[in-house]
Amino acid sequence: MKKRYLILAGILAASMLAAGCGKKNSVAPEQKVEATATPTVTEAAKTDVVEMQTSTDETANIKNVMGTKSETTTSIVFTNKMNSTISAIYVRPTRDDGDDSDETWGSDLVNGKFTLASNDKAVYYMEKSQKDDNGDTATSFDVRITFTDEEQNECFFRQLPLLTISQLSLCMDGEGEDGIPYATYLASGSTKEVSTLKDVKARLGIEDDSDSTDSSDSTAVTPTPTPESSDDNGDSTDSSSSGSSDSTSTPDPTSAPASSDSSDADPTEAPSGEDDPASVAARYIGRSMSELENACGSPNGSDYEDEPESGKTGYYYYDTFTVSTTFDNDGNEVVSGVW
Question: Which domains, ranges and CATH numbers included, belong to the chain?
Answer without folding.
Answer: 65-204 (2.60.40.2890), 209-240+252-259 (no CATH), 273-338 (no CATH)
